[in-house]
Amino acid sequence: MQQLIGRATEVKALLQYINSDKSEFIAVYGRRRVGKTFLIRKAFNDNFVFSVTGVYNAPKQEQLTNFAIAMQRHTRQERLIIPRNWLLAFFELSKYIETLPDGNKIIFIDEMPWMDTAKSGFIAALENFWNSWASIRNDIKLIVCGSATSWMISNLISSKGGLHNRLTHHIVVKPFTLGECEEYFRTYKFQYSRKQIAECYMAMGGIPYYLSLMDRSKSVAQNIDTLFFAQNAPLRNEFNDLYKALFKNAIPHIAIVTALASKGIGLTRKELIAATGLTDNGAFSTQIEELMLCGLIRAYEPFSKHNSNLRKERQKRETIFQLTDFYTLFYFNFIQNNRFHDDHFWTNSLNSPTHSTWSGLAFEMLCLDHLPQIKHALGITGVQAYACSWRGKGSQIDLIIDRKDDTINICEMKYAKNEFEINKDYEARLESKINDFINETATKKALILTLITTHGIKPNAHSGIVQAEITLDALFHL
């Protein structure tokens, strides 16, 4: 039986909401395969008075039939009664719940976006069910879940219609951290080193479903070949399935991540518009927001020594958007390029220039994905700080930790198979980069050059330029 790994914060929140003295309407969302359904079912041990899962790509009548079957399963009526519309379906649900004894009643509707077919009246019926019946009670705990982020945002989280401000809570389920991946592998008796776990994470991220398909008798490289490149690989078509599941019209979203995948340092909004050919309007802003809420991209604020309103407006224009989904980066670098359908494409790519370029960028993403762990390693967990980036006239810094104690960590992230060796040329580049930063920002704060590497820095005549170092092990902190 599968165990619930991590998710302590999410479980605590769910139990708190369920034990409140009022009715609750809770939306749980996140990218496909991240474990939303598993979390909810484990948190409540499947103890629902009613649960139903929408049917993918099915018309209204099949959705209603599926709902009726779920009703029959819970009410144990002999006759299957299929409602004519969603108003009647929710009315039957309310009638059934009114027959139940006192106590909190948890309703779980999974993959709700799939139920909202064209002209089905589903949203209007859901609004009526909540506004006119469930919300005026104090014992209804409605939990809805879905991978279609665009639907969840527009119809529930940012609804402008009858469900405006009706949602009482929403929970984003995020991928595992490195530490949680390690916990998963240890729980299921995988004998992988931390470097191997990191390489696995760099390829597919902390997506529980992907991990669940791995075979502990195989190496990480063998598993990646089996899952993504072998004939009949279970995740061969995952890219299209992922984006189609998340977004109703995924074409602009794919255009955005395609542009970002070719620019590891990220792009500003203006640069993204130019690269994608999309229109700079509200729809584009929504697409960016949806990608961020799914954890597929992040917005990175530029470093500034000013805090005026004018400067903030300029910062908004200069915000850098960066791809953060490991699987998407992996897809563009390897899966998309597997033109010869090589069943061992990953293993055969391990020592290639493409792999070297990808691993450097993926490791930077890994570090940016574990900022709390980096702060902990630096001993500044209790210090207010924000992470940003900086682009100068001739230099750039992908990670700056700007601290309230008048200190700035200038972070360099380097992936290496062994100890990272700083040579004379690299030392000169680091000095030049720091000088450019000081001259162009006119900062008066103390600067600490921080190097984040897989195995640490090899001591030599040039390594003294680094004032703080963090190794891969620190990123596994829970």
Report what the structure shows:
This protein has 478 residues and is α/β, with parallel strands linked by helices. Helices cover 44% and strands 15% of the residues. The chain is built from 20 helices and 13 strands. The strands form 3 sheets. A 5-stranded parallel sheet has the order 2-3-4-1-5, sandwiched between helices. It has a 5-stranded mixed sheet with strand order 9-10-11-12-13, with helices on both faces. The chain has a 3-stranded antiparallel sheet with strand order 6-8-7. Strand 3, helix 5 and strand 4 form a beta-alpha-beta unit. Helix 4 runs parallel beside helix 5. The longest helix has 18 residues. It is elongated, with a radius of gyration of 25 Å. The relative contact order is 0.09. About 1% of the residues have low confidence.
